[in-house]
Specification:
alpha/beta, FAD/NAD(P)-binding domain, 5-stranded parallel sheet, 19 helices, 20 strands, binds ligand NA7
Length: about 525
């Protein structure tokens, strides 16, 4: 029996494996893909890139890695990020401890031996004391439930499964994109000038804002390398572990001139500042949010030539920032091309996919390629897709039927020795991913060290601690604008049964408070956990 089995060779699995190997433990990574990288292995669609500054997305645990790796763009594209994760893995010398092409189908806790038995689609079986979920939060892609989806005779795929072994011919092709979340927005912007024609099927628009990406020249390289300490100090202080944080002034205390000056500056600045460096009231007060939303709506109107198309691209059902804000590069300008058409899939719904294209209530379209940018069964989907059975045979899927229930977003009562890194209801889910997963990994590795040192074989969240944590998570949503928005943040997905109401997926207290809570729990002898 191994000490630990990690599922997933993405950003989390790589660091976790490194820490466990460093302790001399027998750990292996099981990865469904044919290589490492997780999100950055799968999502190869044109335009896939960071919305976080590259150097804030890289790992912080090794100064050597930070110094040796040179990001070429402030917001790196998928190929570069995948190269980075390979570089880190080889530098750490842990590749041999990863098994690829392992689709984990089931995991069962053995109450007699306090260990997990993990089954894979190809019949392989692994047994380990600890089962560590490094599954990511957006790794269960969902196709739309539209009649006829299997009948289309052209090329079609979900963005997550963009072919990796060949180039997809775009030039001259009649292309459809369904979905306008962050993925659709990136893909549309990138392919619009390259295809013969592009038809975008949009159900609900998102609020998008410019990324302002740029190459990192030698001077900027030297500058960010020299700023190592400041970068990570800042990431440790901000609520979302981003380089952007709320403006300390109150919206109500500044003049209109000052307010507009800030907003213009944010709209013209790189990265998530346009979302996160605003006045706190934009997030908290619907009336203030409405004023900012109108400011952004005017920006959209100024960038789209056809006023009717511009109005269609402006969200009417939620205010700016209450869903994930896609950052874009010439997204709105794409709609000024004669070859790009925007279909309102609310007004004229898609009725079916046909052999030759897409039929809406109004028109029959013909396409060569259909791209489904239709999102994910967020946070819990990747756990639900594995038949996970805890103590006494209870299924995690059943326990989470109406939404996740966890303690610290790390464990679920009744599922001993199972840790979810970046699990639902943790801060990893609601902040810049790498800094947050490093904190979760460090904490979990310390706990495992503690258990081993004390000859303990079993650790389980107590039902009371779980209930209190989940109640606190739910309370965090009360009265917020976020709770009313229907997106993957809140677990909505029209393509998954039962995902038509708010699910309390994220810890909303901010990353620093979350880390302090973890430290406090450990300092109190792992309060809320039963150790045996
Ligand atoms: P998202 O943000 O969940 O977007 C999915 C999009 O697909 C969204 O516009 C949906 O419209 C649309 N959708 C889903 N099903 C359908 C059907 N059946 N018909 C029409 N349109 C549909 O996923 P992304 O992949 O874009 O982004 C996920 C995250 O990955 C992103 O935020 C980054 O953090 C990285 P809806 O809004 O439901 O009306």
């Amino acid at each position: 029996m191994r000490d630990a089995i990690i599922i997933g060779a993405g950003v989390t699995g790589i660091y976790l494996l490194h820490r466990l190997k460093d302790l001399g433990l027998d750990a292996t990574v099981l990865e469904a893909g044919d290589d490492l990288g997780g999100t950055w292995y799968w999502n190869r669609y044109p335009g896939a890139r960071f919305d976080s500054e590259s150097y804030s997305y890289g790992y912080s645990f090794s100064r050597e890695i930070f110094d040796e790796w040179n990001w070429s763009e402030h917001f790196a594209g998928q190929p570069e990020t995948l190269r980075y994760l390979n570089f880190v893995t080889d530098k750490l010398g842990i590749r041999d401890h990863m098994q690829f092409g392992c689709q984990v189908t089931a995991a069962t806790f053995d109450d007699d031996n306090n260990c997990w038995r993990v089954e894979m689609a190809d019949g392989r079986i692994e047994t380990g004391r600890y089962l560590l979920g490094a599954l990511g939060i957006l790794s269960a892609p969902t196709l739309p439930r539209i009649d006829g989806i299997d009948t289309f005779e052209g090329e079609a795929f979900h963005t997550y499964y963009w072919p990796k072994d060949r180039d997809v011919e775009l030039a001259g092709k009649r292309v459809a994109v369904i979905g306008t979340g962050a993925t659709g927005v990136q893909a549309i912007s990138e392919i619009a000038p390259k295809v013969g024609s592009l038809t975008v099927f949009q159900r609900r628009p998102n609020w998008c804002a410019p990324l302002h990406n740029a190459r990192i020249d030698e001077a900027a390289q030297a500058q960010y390398k020299a700023s190592h300490d400041e970068i990570f100090e800042k990431l440790s202080q901000t609520r979302g572990s981003f380089l952007h944080d709320v403006d300390p002034r109150s919206y109500h205390d500044v003049s209109e001139e000052e307010r507009l000056a800030l907003w213009e500056k944010l709209y013209g600045s790189p990265g998530f500042g346009v979302w996160l460096s605003n006045f706190a009231e934009v997030f908290l007060e619907p009336e203030v949010n409405a004023v900012y939303s109108e400011f952004i709506a005017d920006k959209i109107r100024s960038r789209v030539n056809d006023p009717e198309t511009a109005e269609r691209l402006i969200p009417k059902d939620h205010g700016f920032g209450n869903q994930r804000v896609p950052l874009e590069t010439r997204y709105y300008e794409a709609y000024n091309l004669d070859t790009v058409h925007l279909i309102d899939a609310m007004a004229t719904p898609i009725e079916r996919i046909t052999k030759t294209g897409i039929k809406t209530s109004e028109e029959d379209f013909e396409f060569d390629l259909i791209i489904y940018a239709t999102g994910f069964d967020s946070f819990t989907g990747s756990y639900d897709r594995i038949d996970i059975r805890g103590s006494g045979g209870q299924k995690l899927r059943d326990k989470w039927h109406d939404g996740p229930v966890t303690y610290l977003g790390l464990q679920a009562a009744g599922f001993p020795n199972l840790f979810m890194l970046a699990g639902p209801q943790s801060a990893s889910a609601s902040s810049n991913f790498p800094p947050s997963i490093e904190a979760c990994v460090n904490w979990t590795v310390e706990m495992i060290t503690h258990l081993k040192a004390n000859n303990l074989e079993r650790v389980e969240a107590s039902p009371g601690a779980e209930e209190a944590w989940t109640d606190a998570i739910k309370a965090g949503y009360k009265g917020t604008m976020l709770a009313r928005a229907k997106s993957w943040f809140t677990g909505y997905n029209s393509n998954v049964d039962g995902h038509d109401k708010l699910r309390h997926m994220m810890y909303l207290g901010g990353a620093p408070t979350y880390r302090a809570t973890l430290a406090d729990v450990a300092a109190k002898g792992y309060e809320g956990f039963e150790l045996k």
